[in-house]
Amino acid sequence: MKKMGLIQLFRRNRKLLWAGFLALILIFVITFPLYGGPYNVTVLTYVLLYVVLAVSWAMFSGTTGYMSLAPAAFVGLGIYSMAILQRQLPFPVIIVVGGLVSFAFALLIGLVTLRLRGIYFAIFTFGLVIFLSELIQYLETTIRGAHGWAIIPMSYTMLLYTALGLAVVTVLAIYFLRRSRYGLAMLSIGGNEEAAAHMGINTTMVKVLGFAISSMFMGIAGVLLAPELIYINTNIAFSTIYSFMPILMAVFGGMGTLYGPVVGAVVFAYLETMIRNEFPRYFLPGFGITLVVVILFLPTGIAGLMPVLRERLGRLRAKLWKGGQAEQHANT
Amino acid sequence: MSFWAACPCVTQRAQQQVSIMIERVPQLIVTGILQGGIYGLLAMGLTLQYGVCRVLNITHGEFVMLGGVLTYTLGINLGINPLVSAAITGPIMFVIGFLLHITLFRALKARSPAQPVFEGSALLVAFGIMYVILYIAQIGWGGLRLPTTWLAVKVVFGGMTLFLNQIVAFAVCVVLGVAVYLFLSRSRLGRAIRATAEDPATAGLMGVNINIILAFCFGLGALLAGVAGPLSAMITNPSTSIGFQNTVIALIVVTLGGLGSVPGSFVAGIIIGIVSMLVIGLWQPILTVPVYYGILMILLLVRPTGLLGKR
């Protein structure tokens, strides 16, 4: 009976409990540098940045169904803005610039490809990483005459707080975006684009803006990722891992929801940093197989599993109750 | 020279450079056509897989890479030359492709509520498989370039120096391309494939075993990639990291030729081959992909259906 009371309590104060839970997480992250040690703080920063990447990928591709295969291109743009501008401008300005560069580039790509069917968008974004990396390599050799940039390391506590701020801003922005007209428009494009267009939604504009906004967050995440790399060149900055991991995380967590990608990012970013040193060769094939298996057997991800589990649990409880009553009936 | 006399601002040295460049153009174009045969073969496989199975197979380049590195292994262990190993890797890739479709993509198709959903999730599945194949190959073969070039004999033909291996590879590509085209347009199975591409449900009602046809097509696409691997390994040494670039080239060629059009992709392959050789020879090798992207961007703005695609 006491257990039932607890469930009732959860039900009644769900919002309050969520707020408390989030506040606890925030406090945990903020106080983490006091007892975590430098390495763990770096890992936590990494996790937060992957949360940003996964959430912003799912914001566009998960809702509209237009699969962007190029988060790495925007991350790389962010990393390069940091590398080039670090000695000239203060850090907050670089964050803004990195975001704007990615935003503008995504706007350009979107205007070219998003008028067309999704398959052209996928084709175009797939090679974007290699396009940008080769173009920048060419510009580097002709203008500067040298490859690669050294990046001045930054205080890891400051990076953690900036990453936390970015993650909070991203999640909040996407939370409100999903509830706004634009979010609904993107969702309806994912459902049936023709119908959405007939309802009076300017589908191209919505898609282009959504893509640009999600790319902006990826670019900023790239700016924050740069100081931990210490040295970068085009191969390091435009590594396809930054495309693969956010997609894996978002799919694992559930593309259609907000909290799914967050869960996926926390799980896989942590897993990656833990496994990377022990199985340097086997963890990536393992992650690839995970992606395939999740799409096949769990297309809605962990988030899709939740309602099923809840229902199962409810049915089990009802069965137990009813079972008891039925026995009584049988006895009488 | 009268042309140069009109503009005195151009220095003597620049004039010489330009005339050397112009002399190299026919040579580059012929080399480009020969290289384009392989691109065409590659793209034919991809376009077949997308046009019939509706899977944009971004694993395609990894199959090429597997063909290349297997050529190295076969050459080292059994002393087989790349042409013979193309006849071995092709069927191996066919089996892999067939099994992939009949297990993964068929299950995915059965679970997807609508066509766009299937295309999206098939894309992500292919994306996952790409990484699996890439990193497993890196465990097996490492990251270095493997020596496989064969028949690197110079042939002087009409003032141009070509290599015998380029000519042989191009001949094989043309023969295979024509064979696939004839197979699709003339044979009974080819007619079944075209019917499936057009309307799977009706084709099924007419007695076509759709699941087998789709898997067969996917396997055929993989076979073409598996043949293109050894052929390109004959000309340049393969490494485990060439897959991504090959996929990008194949995707751009397919878009240029028109998604789903088999002859279109072969023609577009030759065009892209010429463009790539001109960029490499006259400008900068590193700029090939940016130039492809320029072409792709203009194409998507002007005529997204490609050269020979249907409206």
What do these coordinates show?
The complex is a heterodimer of chains A (332) and B (311). Chain A is 83% helix and 1% strand. Chain A is mostly helical. Chain A has a domain of 200 residues. Chain A has a two-stranded antiparallel ribbon. The longest helix of chain A has 31 residues. The radius of gyration of chain A is 23 Å and the shape is globular. The mean pLDDT of chain A is 89. Chain B has a domain of 210 residues. In chain B, a hairpin with a 2-residue loop joins strand 1 and strand 2. In chain B, helix 3 crosses helix 9, helix 7 packs across helix 9 and helix 10 packs parallel to helix 12. The radius of gyration of chain B is 21 Å and the shape is globular. The mean pLDDT of chain B is 89. At the A-B interface, helix 6, helix 7, helix 13 and helix 15 of A face helix 4, helix 5, helix 10 and helix 12 of B.
Strand content of chain A: under 5%
Distance between the termini of chain B: 47 Å
- Low-pLDDT stretches of chain B are none
Topology of chain A as a string of helices (H) and strands (E)? HHHHHHHEHHHHEHHHHH
Concise summary:
The complex is a heterodimer of chains A (332) and B (311). Chain A is mainly α. Chain A is 83% helix and 1% strand.
Question: Descriptors for this entry?
Answer:
heterodimer; A: 332 residues; mainly alpha; two-stranded antiparallel sheet; 16 helices; 83% helix; globular; B: 2 strands
Question: How are the SSEs ordered, and which strands pair?
Answer:
The complex is a heterodimer of chains A (332) and B (311).
Chain A: H1 2-12, H2 14-36, H3 38-64, H4 71-85, H5 91-113, H6 118-126, H7 128-144, E1 149-150, H8 156-179, H9 181-191, H10 193-198, H11 203-229, E2 231-232, H12 234-237, H13 241-253, H14 259-278, H15 283-297, H16 301-331
Helix pairs in contact in A: 2-3, 2-8, 3-8, 3-9, 3-11, 3-13, 3-14, 4-5, 4-7, 4-11, 4-13, 5-11, 8-9, 8-11, 9-11, 13-14, 13-16
Chain B: H1 2-5, H2 12-53, H3 60-78, H4 82-111, H5 115-141, E1 154-157, E2 160-163, H6 164-186, H7 188-198, H8 200-205, H9 210-235, H10 243-257, H11 262-282, H12 288-302
Antiparallel strand pairs in B: 1-2
